[in-house]
């Protein structure tokens, strides 16, 4: 797949005319590398019904047995060339038949082709030397770059389109538009802003419903807010549970997220809709008292200290300089004001039941 601007003349692409055979060593190496890519950066994708890309049709045709691997790979190569921009680097498109959970699958990989040298030991007149050999077509070296990957399985075929997975190693926290939309004809199944909000809401609900220990509850909430405010561009719910939750809580937490349609795997994080909700933490008590404090202050025991009294109650010690004390109204509520009743002159009566006195100039 040569690098090509739209204004450049189209050049013929060398294509495979038969399926290549893989020995066990090559197959094992490929599987290990691609599993790692999909596990770390793979995202669920679904067919975009508004897309003009024909790739979903090619995928469907192959997975249902209507077309063979060589034929469908040829169509995909030309579609990729017409989809990518002039800045897209040259590379190789690998199209392979695979198995996923026992189901037939189709794998697409765009990767770079590398060059390299190999030194081979030899002897001349009993003296050791090394013959150097140049290779112009190395693939999947330890440092080679896997640019983009897509994987579709036959169990991802539905009446309203196909579903699969995709990864883009060249982009941070998103996928190149030409690859996801123009080539694959898909969109992300979980829009980052929406799935981040669902994670926040579901995690907060689970903590307040099922965690009875007040200290643990507060620690979990602070961990949630810290995770969402971290500079990381992705969020891994499974890793979050392992790092912040007690072992006895992890399975229940994961199941609750699943019921709230939050995936357990890594997703791209976007907190734009949550920015105002991540700055402060509110702790409410059964007696109607509550405190609102910045998250950083809740982390600092010298500022806000909570102590379990052992009888279901918690005491709070706040250390600082008092600056103001005012009445408080909950945000979003307005104090009702009685408005004076306005009567028309014809309906007003004087004290004697007659018309009111009028003023004449």
How large is the share of residues in beta strands?
A: 25-35%
Tell me the helix content.
25-40%
Based on secondary structure, the structural category is alpha+beta
What is the CA–CA distance across the termini? 97 Å
Task: Determine the mean pLDDT.
Answer: 78
Q: Write down the domain tally.
A: 2
How do the SSEs run, as a string of H and E? HEHHEEEEEEHEHHEHHEEEHEE
Number of strands: 14
- Outline the biggest β-sheet: 6 strands, antiparallel
Low-confidence stretches: 344-361
The radius of gyration computed from the alpha-carbon positions, rounded to a whole number of angstroms, is 32 Å
- The 3D shape can be described as elongated
Q: How large is the count of helical segments?
A: 9
Strand order of the largest sheet: 2-3-6-7-1-8
Organism: Streptomyces achmelvichensis
Protein name: Nucleoid-associated protein
